[in-house]
Amino acid sequence: MTGLATRNPVHRPVLVGEAMDILRPEAGGVYVDATVGLGGHAGEMLRLMGGRGTLIGIDRDEEALRMAAAALTSGNVVLRHAGFSRIGDVLGELRIESVQGIFFDLGVSMLQLKMAGRGFSFATDEPLDMRMDITQALTAREVVNTYSQERLTQILREYGEERHAAKIARAIVTNRRQRPIGTCRELARIAAWAYGRAGRQRIHPATRTFQALRIEVNRELDELEAGLGSSVRLLSKGGRMAVISYHSLEDRIVKHFFKKAAAEGQLQVLTKKPVRPGPEEVRENPAARSARLRGAEKL
Ligand SMILES: C[S@@+](CC[C@H](N)C(=O)[O-])C[C@H]1O[C@@H](n2cnc3c(N)ncnc32)[C@H](O)[C@@H]1O
To answer: Which phi and psi (to 5°) does residue 298 adopt?
Structure first.
């Protein structure tokens, strides 16, 4: 990949004011940004804390943590490399029993999407990778070249909500018999071919396939369920959590989780409907268009 813009991707934090309205970071508190990324939301949390209190930033991407460390230079910041399903262990190691707020901004960052070599983007000749944490073993290449046709169909259907799941899985298996599928572009071509004439639509025919593989490689939905469950236990009374999701599978998990926790008397839901970005934010940052924010308070 070439060009300064692609080497230094700008990640614009999404729904910052709206998320802060839910979290209401205060001086002296302890807050967790469970997906610290490049530190956009975390920076705002620190600003609102007025330099007093602690911000714990978690990310499973070491490269993101390096950039967050460079960006978050004021205040008491602790950064940890972990999946947020391990938020309880992270806080336990720091001897912190409870926190006043926990924030999740799910999915991938611009760094991961645009930086060379991560293999998330279907318009590149990069190796099929898609790992947020490059220390983990499973890659998209392995999923695509070793999973059974049935399992691939199931992943595309469940995680991609892909109507043509069976066709695409069949095309993947047929193609990999010739030689292993190695790059993002090869997989994108296979998905487009399987779509055939139906592929002439608004989004690229490989979009859902890539979403599905990303979710499988990074176990995103399991991580989310575990991270939400731990968060409720770790919040102090009156503490708040806010979650931004970018596709309906994630949003559904958050919505149902909040609903169940509210029915059990653990949380009060603060957002009857998800908060969406306004037209101005979407115009300035098209990546924000699918964002949905939900918040809750610990009872
Ligand atoms: C949308 S970005 C966050 C951007 C951040 N809010 C900012 O303003 O810069 C999502 C980040 O969450 C991280 N991430 C996604 N799933 C994760 C998980 N299960 N555990 C830890 N980090 C995760 C990704 O590596 C990525 O850096």
So the answer is: -75, 130
Q: How confident is the model at residue 201 (pLDDT cuts 50, 70, 90)?
A: low
Instruction: Give the residue whose CA is nearest to atom 18 of ligand 1.
Output: 83
Q: Which of 38, 59, 81 to mutate to test the pocket of ligand 1 (most atoms within 8 A of CB)?
A: 59
Strand locations in the chain, DSSP E? 30-33, 54-59, 76-81, 99-105, 235-245, 267-269, 292-298
3 state SS of 83: coil
**Ligand 1 atom showing the smallest separation from residue 64 Cα:** 27
* Cα-to-centroid distance, 260 and ligand 1 (Å): 25
Q: What is the position in ligand 1's atom list of the atom closest to the CA of 59?
A: 22
Plot region of 6 (φ>0 → left; ψ -120 to 50 → alpha; else → beta):
alpha
Evaluate if residue 251 carries a pLDDT over 70: yes
Q: What percent of the chain has pLDDT over 90?
A: 84
Domains plus CATH for the chain? 4-111+220-298 (3.40.50.150), 118-218 (1.10.150.170)
Report how many helices (DSSP H) and strands (DSSP E) the chain contains, helices first: 14, 7
Q: Which of 165, 286, 166, 147 is nearest to 216 (CA)?
A: 147
Which residues sit opposite 285 in a β-bridge?
Answer: none
Query: How confident is the model over 261-268, as a mean pLDDT?
Result: 98
The chain-wide mean pLDDT, for the chain, equals: 93
Please list the alpha-helical segments (H only) found in 50-123.
62-71, 87-93, 110-114
